[in-house]
């Protein structure tokens, strides 16, 4: 009886999962393939598919099935598909059913319409043209928050969408720790005055060859992955066997390469989920913070490590003999780890990155709280860039317009980037302990041990457990701890810049 | 009251139109972008979206709205959006509601799963591996036919899906005319013995440049169209402003170029539909035959015309100076109009093409009627190729496995290709009468007059009228008349091969 009800729930959730992945293709295509004049109708299609998925999920039928299965689910093994599916669906249902389908659809339509406006505004350094759609997105986000009961701070509501159970005040505490312990690192490095200006040329054709060689060594395969250029890189896909990462190229630095490694990390998480979870709401990463821990891990802990470059630097030098004349791997390693406050978040180094996030975290709370007129946002942005990073912002294209998120209505998303950095270091301490010859493998171009460790301990489970439960399983505590990240940073910067090593 | 009901109907149909176009993106992506291992989950997604669209359309709510609006609709201007929408929706509803949603979903899932099997089978000349999925598709198609009352022949049911109101016996009568009047042309040409063998090399890079120049002259614009390579070319898109055509390339002939012009014709039809019809079931071509009349028109009546090549041959020769050394435009014109029985339908010349269709038309009826064991299909194919075209088929890759249609479950589709050829000539006689300097324009690279004529007389209306009504509006008769096509062919071949001119 309960098994039959579970099967019915599963069938209904499978249909919804198909719609969610279909929406994900509509979104991928919109950003990667769609001719620009398709934007209007695409907004309708995204809204419709999102609305139907939402209506189907929040239907009384699904709600009743979940209610009827709650006790049965609790009697199943906690780790089992059955128990996990009922548990997670129940929690999702409770949240989703609080939001009217029409509001969801309007949020999705508004986001789709805002995207091309943002693309143009960014291109033309024209914040004014972006303002109305930003305002609309924010108003919708406030209406969204109003659907919920606020225990503590309104920002908790949006944060929880991306990082379940995370509270604004916890993030603030973590960020305060970073202000105290990470920000000084940047000053210590600056005091060494060792950064050499460099003026490189990296023609794109070789970049494309090189980054494919790198991600293929990492685990990208042509039969289950795609890599395409786009304006603002992201990872997406339609299933465990169809993973799509995107990138962009610059001809004066290799930021695109690190971006590609970053998106690979996201893609691998989705690709290594237990296939038994496909077509269920469990078939995705547990939270954005944990997702970001994977992208930052491949980008930074792997892609900016000395062992990685011992393997790949000779090849890079072969592709760019002139640009990299006079370089050895150590000099290159120092360069890709150069700490220097800069304008663009996605190009920021490991030591300054979190400061970009803290700025956005504070601005988002201020915008939701109407703490200043929205016209003033560029000024607020620019003054904080000066305060936190000592940087003067020349125009909005490289300032407040640089990120796609607000155009997509995503508020509460940014903090997960910094949390991901912190989690990546927490995980890394465990991985290095479990796989002692990890770095030797990197030097041989061997990344399977890392991939396998991640699959077994993290990816495989998909979204069966909460972020806290997941973290507890992997590192023994459910709390995000900023100390390992700061430790990792100080150690690296000690070796490169000669600042004081961790005590 | 009725207006409110109409608005509700329209909202519901808009949601369904969004789903239909979303399915169209899932399909385009499947054939053009998807990594191969995505096939399994894509089949589920296509089935789900198709099923939901079908369920929503065949719902009692939509049925009731249509019933309540029928009289009101008939009081509106026949050409109006209101009258047309109610009329077309009523007819679609009647057909669609006869087919269970689960059967629809199974057909769509089965087609999606069969596609990669067909791709492999074709690649490996392995009909046996294709047989089980073909059988499954055919069984589902028979179950589909069983959902309807058969007045005359079972094949009428599938034919009607692609060419509304068309009857098998009418097609047979038209095809008999072609056997009598078109087939002899091929023999007359063969008797002249003028074909020279040629062995060309057309490196792909220049083809890509040239075909873009051609379709851009025709009306392709980067802001609303895409052109991508695929295995079996088709036209698709997600809306009037997002048109996607696909092509493939060969390095020993320019078949890909003509294929691209063909798909352009399909794309232009969808692109020139009245924007007021967007997000309604009227926002597409009226039937496959009329659609094919557009693709064949741009491929053949434009793309294989002497005035077209007077404009474009110099450029082609510039791109291929070695390959086309010693050619002038007249020799090239004769070559692209060379009549010679050949293996591949999509590469067949204008004089033999319809014979490929007659073969498929007969085989489809035989397969639905179980007239031979399906294992025998390659033999049946090969013996008819010999009978109709005098050609011996060396393997199934270039024989029974050449076309995508049966892998997609499309039966009853092929005849519309031949009907399209015939309609294109019917339309052309009218266009040439209305636009006397049409050919002079082609020589100047001017295709707007043709585009505009087609928009005004055909494309603009979308699916407001039946194929018969549409044809009657444009050429004064609702009947497909094969005579203009045979006349056109005989005239062209008289000028090229010196066979007897039309009397």
Walk me through what this model shows.
The structure is a homodimer of 503-residue chains. By secondary structure, chain A is mainly alpha-helical. Chain A is built from 21 helices and three strands. Chain A has helices spanning 2-32, 39-57, 60-75, 81-96, 101-124, 127-146, 155-162, 168-181, 183-192, 204-218, 255-271, 288-302, 306-319, 329-336, 353-368, 377-389, 415-434, 438-443, 448-457, 467-475, 483-497; strands at 225-229, 235-239, 242-247. In chain A, α3 runs antiparallel to α4 (81-96), α11 packs across α12 and α15 runs antiparallel to α16. Chain A is globular. The mean pLDDT of chain A is 95.
Tally of helical segments of chain A: 21
Low-confidence stretches of chain A: none
Share in β-strands of chain A = under 5%
Sheet with the most strands: spatial strand order of chain A: 1-3-2
- CATH C-level of the largest domain in chain A: Mainly Alpha
Rg of chain A (CA only): 23 Å
β-strand number of chain A: 3
Oligomer: homodimer
The end-to-end span of chain A amounts to 60 Å
What does the secondary structure layout of this molecule look like, with pairings?
2 copies of one chain form a homodimer.
Chain A: H1 2-32, H2 39-57, H3 60-75, H4 81-96, H5 101-124, H6 127-146, H7 155-162, H8 168-181, H9 183-192, H10 204-218, E1 225-229, E2 235-239, E3 242-247, H11 255-271, H12 288-302, H13 306-319, H14 329-336, H15 353-368, H16 377-389, H17 415-434, H18 438-443, H19 448-457, H20 467-475, H21 483-497
Parallel strand pairs in A: 1-3
Antiparallel strand pairs in A: 2-3
Helix pairs in contact in A: 1-2, 1-3, 2-5, 3-4, 5-6, 10-11, 10-13, 11-12, 12-17, 13-14, 15-16, 15-17, 17-21
């Amino acid at each position: 009886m309960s098994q039959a009800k579970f099967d019915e729930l599963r069938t209904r959730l499978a249909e919804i999962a198909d719609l969610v992945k279909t929406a994900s293709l509509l979104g991928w295509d919109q950003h990667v393939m769609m001719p620009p004049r398709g934007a209007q109708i695409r907004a309708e299609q995204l809204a419709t598919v999102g609305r139907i998925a939402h209506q189907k999920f929040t239907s009384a039928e699904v709600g009743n099935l979940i209610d009827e299965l709650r006790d049965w689910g609790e009697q199943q093994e906690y780790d089992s598909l059955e128990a996990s599916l009922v548990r997670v669906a129940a929690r999702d249902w409770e949240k989703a059913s609080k939001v009217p389908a029409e509001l969801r659809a309007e949020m999705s339509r508004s986001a789709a319409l805002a995207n091309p406006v943002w693309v143009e505004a960014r291109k033309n350094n024209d914040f004014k043209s972006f303002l109305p759609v930003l305002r609309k997105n924010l108003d919708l986000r406030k209406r969204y928050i109003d659907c919920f009961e606020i225990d503590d701070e309104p920002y908790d509501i949006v944060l929880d969408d991306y990082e379940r159970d995370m509270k604004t005040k916890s993030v603030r505490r973590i960020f305060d720790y970073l202000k105290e312990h990470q920000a000084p690192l940047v000053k210590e490095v600056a005091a060494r005055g060792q950064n050499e200006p460099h003026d490189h040329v990296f023609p794109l054709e070789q970049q494309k060859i090189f980054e494919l060689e790198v991600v293929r060594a990492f685990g990208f395969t042509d039969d289950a992955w795609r890599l395409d250029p786009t304006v603002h890189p992201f990872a997406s896909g339609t299933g465990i066997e169809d993973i799509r990462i995107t990138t962009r190229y610059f001809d004066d630095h290799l930021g695109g390469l690190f971006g590609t490694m970053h998106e690979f990390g996201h893609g691998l998480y989705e690709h290594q989920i237990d296939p038994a979870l496909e077509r269920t709401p469990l078939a995705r990463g547990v939270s954005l913070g944990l997702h970001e821990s994977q992208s930052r891990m491949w980008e930074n802990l792997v892609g900016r490590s000395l062992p990685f470059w011992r393997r790949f630097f000779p090849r890079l030098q072969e592709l760019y003999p002139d640009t990299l004349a006079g370089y050895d791997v150590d000099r290159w390693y120092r360069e890709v780890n150069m700490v220097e406050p800069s304008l663009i978040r996605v190009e920021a180094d490991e030591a300054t990155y979190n400061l970009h996030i803290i700025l956005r975290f504070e601005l988002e709370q201020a915008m939701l709280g109407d703490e200043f007129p929205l016209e003033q946002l560029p000024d607020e942005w620019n003054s904080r860039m000066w305060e936190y990073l000592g940087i003067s912002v020349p125009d909005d294209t490289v300032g407040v317009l640089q990120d796609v998120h607000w155009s997509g209505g995503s508020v509460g998303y940014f903090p997960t980037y910094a949390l991901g950095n912190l989690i990546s270091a927490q995980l890394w301490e465990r991985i290095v302990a479990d796989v002692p010859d990890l770095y030797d493998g990197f030097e041989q171009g061997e990344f399977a041990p890392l991939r396998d460790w991640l699959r077994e301990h993290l990816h495989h489970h998909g979204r069966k457990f909460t972020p806290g439960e997941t973290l507890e399983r992997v590192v023994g505590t459910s709390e995000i701890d900023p100390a390992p990240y700061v430790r990792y940073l100080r150690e690296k910067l000690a070796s490169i810049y000669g600042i004081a090593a961790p005590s």
